[in-house]
Amino acid sequence: MRELGFWHSTEHNFPTALVSQLRCVWTGRNGCRILFCLQRLFGRTAVVHDTASSQRWLARQRSDPYVRRARLESFRCRSAFKLIQLDERVPGGLIHPQDVVVDCGAAPGSWTQVAASICAKSGLVISFDLLDFPHVPGARCYPHTDVQDWELCAGLVDRAIAEHYANSKVGDRPFGVSLVLSDMAPNASGIRDIDIPAMMNLASAVLQLAIRVSTPGASLVIKLWQCPEAEPFRKMVSQFYHGPWDSISATVPKKNQKISASATQSWTMGSVSPVRFLKPAASRSDSAEIYLVAKGFVPDCVIQTL
């Protein structure tokens, strides 16, 4: 939370105590800013002074080519290009026209837009987020839904799939999800002992949901932060996803090496790993985010693991 600076004038006569409580809220997810409008509260105008960091953020947004492309291509956020690049990077792609796709933490809806543009006609896109967000045409959106309650989400997925195929002219399809996506991240506090467990809890909930709803051979994409906890999580995911990734060359990072923002580079711990970390070019170089990408879900491994 960052407090705003206000220009005061006797003609505005804003209550000082109330003004001091107003904040500039940064959503964290997708870098979107929400400003509370004083005019709606008081029916008058006020001049708001952004901090230096806000000005830097605005300058970066104006110069960001993906922000401009998102506007031109009618995507709600620049993060759409991260999914597009991940889809291009993976052999055979991640999203196909007849797929059933679940987007976790979908707000404001850019990843759902990408998925719906590919498979809305003959497939199905289901989106969840704890926040409210506008409906995405061609998708079933469930705002105010906590993905960490993965059992509730699994029930909604089952019902959506049943309704879709009951009313669809598409032939028999596997009763399950082809791809689970997550671009979620917790609101960062800057305290590692709080932020990393929060991120891993989100990732674990998405994995639980994916195991519950995925059809054999399904894929999984989860955003993580570069941290020591990411590798044990990758190994856990690899128990349930077995590839194949034959046409991607694996690279092993040197000690303490960060993944560069390149759409052509992958990071794995072991050259035959079925689960990879990728960083698309649209991911900013100063961002710690990486994407765990897994292919080839094997339901039998769930029973063996349990």
TrEMBL record:
GO terms for biological process: cell division. The active site is at residue 223. InterPro entries: RNA_methyltr_RlmE (IPR050082), RNA_MeTrfase_FtsJ_dom (IPR002877), rRNA-MeTfrase_E (IPR015507), SAM-dependent_MTases_sf (IPR029063). The keyword Chloroplast does not apply. GO terms for cellular component: mitochondrion. Residues 75-241 form the Ribosomal RNA methyltransferase FtsJ domain. Gene3D superfamilies: Vaccinia Virus protein VP39 (3.40.50.150). GO terms for molecular function: rRNA (uridine-2'-O-)-methyltransferase activity. Keywords: Cell cycle, Cell division, Methyltransferase, rRNA processing, S-adenosyl-L-methionine, Transferase. It comes from the Eukaryota. Belongs to the class I-like SAM-binding methyltransferase superfamily. RNA methyltransferase RlmE family. This is rRNA methyltransferase 2, mitochondrial. The lineage of its organism: Eukaryota, Metazoa, Spiralia, Lophotrochozoa, Platyhelminthes.
